[in-house]
Amino acid sequence: MFSALGNLQPRQLAAQILNFALVLSTAFMLWKGLSVFTNSSSPIVVVLSGSMEPAFQRGDLLFLWNRGKETQVGEIVVYNVRGKDIPIVHRVIRRFGGGSAPLQLLTKGDNNAADDTELYARGQSYLDRSKDVIGSVVGYVPFVGYVTILLSEYPWLKTAMLGFMALTVVLQRE
Amino acid sequence: MADTKISPHSLAELKNTTDDALGNYLRGLKFEQDNTKLDVRLAIGYASVIIAAATFAADYKLGWEATKTWTAVAVVAYALLNGAFTYWMWAVEKGCVFAGVREGKKISVASKTKKHDPTYYLTISSANSESRQITAPFTTWFTADGYFVAKPFQQWLASSVEAIGNADSKNALRDQRDEIASPSPEVELTPQGNGTVDASGTDGKSKGSKRSKRKG
């Protein structure tokens, strides 16, 4: 299998490696393009917990839009707790400010008993719409995101997938 | 060249192996390969990969908010470069597998295959003439179990293409070249002694001894 690679001229080897590099970079740039379009740092997120049941289940894929400045009560937003990298998907139950004043939000999971004040960082009792919120949910696909959960819980899966992809693209010359 | 076995059922492998062999053969005949087309493709491709890598690095180090504008610019640049890349491959390269010069004469070879058709289509354009298309089934130079045999492939090329035949006289069979130049009729008319014409195609004299004995 690898002998086929050994017979290649150096330019052709470079061309094969380019093919693999283009697959990776195109996927990445498509993601970044979507980020720029939605103005969100993470335009597609996976639901990690059951705190929004029955609306969203663990493993659902959510599509976000971050260009709506006036988030209303009842909208579902995704935010990062200050200092942590875990996205939380909850519903807005109160808003303060808005218009010319900076917009502040209080959120709560549908399936939770209490609002999110416990979840926010120490000293933080509300969310800043412009700083903390990644976007509002505008659509979703059920269950598809479970792959991401598996990839994060079993990190060797990521390496295995990438290695397999690299092998097939470099050795295939179609 | 190593005796590598390929799958004779995969059209892509047949074509790629033949393309590689073509390049090796021509380079062996001292055709100087002109790599400009491939180099431009590699340049465009790697430029876009570098832009993607730079965007990734910036995003990793500085985060989303700080790099938003640069990312937007990079995405547009990447899309344009990728479009140029695809256009280059489709319009300019157009299946070119070898371009080179020998003794001042340029030659450019492009190959293609058609789906579910085990035939090799070559389009050759040399400096003096316009492009010609020659075809041959892959079975001419591949065994049934997938081994490439160089001799029939080289003979086919040397006999069908003047520029290659001039470079490799050993493989350019005179009969075949003449065939291509002016095909002979299937049957020869040979006059017989008794006024009739024998169209059987056999030379009466050479086999005549046996015949006349039996008849006589």
UniProtKB/TrEMBL annotation, chain A:
<dbReference type="GO" id="GO:0005787">
    <property type="term" value="C:signal peptidase complex"/>
</dbReference>
<keyword id="KW-0378">Hydrolase</keyword>
<keyword id="KW-0812">Transmembrane</keyword>
<comment type="function">
    <text>Catalytic component of the signal peptidase complex (SPC) which catalyzes the cleavage of N-terminal signal sequences from nascent proteins as they are translocated into the lumen of the endoplasmic reticulum. Specifically cleaves N-terminal signal peptides that contain a hydrophobic alpha-helix (h-region) shorter than 18-20 amino acids.</text>
</comment>
<dbReference type="InterPro" id="IPR019533">
    <property type="entry name" value="Peptidase_S26"/>
</dbReference>
<comment type="similarity">
    <text>Belongs to the peptidase S26B family.</text>
</comment>
<dbReference type="GO" id="GO:0006465">
    <property type="term" value="P:signal peptide processing"/>
</dbReference>
<feature type="transmembrane region" description="Helical">
    <location>
        <begin position="12"/>
        <end position="31"/>
    </location>
</feature>
<dbReference type="InterPro" id="IPR015927">
    <property type="entry name" value="Peptidase_S24_S26A/B/C"/>
</dbReference>
<dbReference type="InterPro" id="IPR001733">
    <property type="entry name" value="Peptidase_S26B"/>
</dbReference>
<dbReference type="Pfam" id="PF00717">
    <property type="entry name" value="Peptidase_S24"/>
</dbReference>
<keyword id="KW-0735">Signal-anchor</keyword>
<feature type="transmembrane region" description="Helical">
    <location>
        <begin position="132"/>
        <end position="149"/>
    </location>
</feature>
<keyword id="KW-0472">Membrane</keyword>
<comment type="subunit">
    <text>Component of the signal peptidase complex (SPC) composed of a catalytic subunit SEC11 and three accessory subunits SPC1, SPC2 and SPC3. The complex induces a local thinning of the ER membrane which is used to measure the length of the signal peptide (SP) h-region of protein substrates. This ensures the selectivity of the complex towards h-regions shorter than 18-20 amino acids. SPC associates with the translocon complex.</text>
</comment>
<dbReference type="GO" id="GO:0009003">
    <property type="term" value="F:signal peptidase activity"/>
</dbReference>
<keyword id="KW-0256">Endoplasmic reticulum</keyword>
<dbReference type="InterPro" id="IPR019756">
    <property type="entry name" value="Pept_S26A_signal_pept_1_Ser-AS"/>
</dbReference>
<dbReference type="InterPro" id="IPR036286">
    <property type="entry name" value="LexA/Signal_pep-like_sf"/>
</dbReference>
<keyword id="KW-0645">Protease</keyword>
<dbReference type="GO" id="GO:0004252">
    <property type="term" value="F:serine-type endopeptidase activity"/>
</dbReference>
<keyword id="KW-1133">Transmembrane helix</keyword>
TrEMBL record, chain B:
<comment type="function">
    <text>Component of the signal peptidase complex (SPC) which catalyzes the cleavage of N-terminal signal sequences from nascent proteins as they are translocated into the lumen of the endoplasmic reticulum. Enhances the enzymatic activity of SPC and facilitates the interactions between different components of the translocation site.</text>
</comment>
<protein>
    <recommendedName>
        <fullName>Signal peptidase complex subunit 2</fullName>
    </recommendedName>
</protein>
<keyword id="KW-0812">Transmembrane</keyword>
<feature type="region of interest" description="Disordered">
    <location>
        <begin position="172"/>
        <end position="216"/>
    </location>
</feature>
<dbReference type="GO" id="GO:0005787">
    <property type="term" value="C:signal peptidase complex"/>
</dbReference>
<feature type="transmembrane region" description="Helical">
    <location>
        <begin position="70"/>
        <end position="90"/>
    </location>
</feature>
<keyword id="KW-0472">Membrane</keyword>
<dbReference type="GO" id="GO:0006465">
    <property type="term" value="P:signal peptide processing"/>
</dbReference>
<feature type="compositionally biased region" description="Basic residues">
    <location>
        <begin position="207"/>
        <end position="216"/>
    </location>
</feature>
<dbReference type="Pfam" id="PF06703">
    <property type="entry name" value="SPC25"/>
</dbReference>
<comment type="similarity">
    <text>Belongs to the SPCS2 family.</text>
</comment>
<keyword id="KW-0256">Endoplasmic reticulum</keyword>
<keyword id="KW-1133">Transmembrane helix</keyword>
<dbReference type="GO" id="GO:0045047">
    <property type="term" value="P:protein targeting to ER"/>
</dbReference>
<dbReference type="InterPro" id="IPR009582">
    <property type="entry name" value="Spc2/SPCS2"/>
</dbReference>
<feature type="transmembrane region" description="Helical">
    <location>
        <begin position="40"/>
        <end position="58"/>
    </location>
</feature>
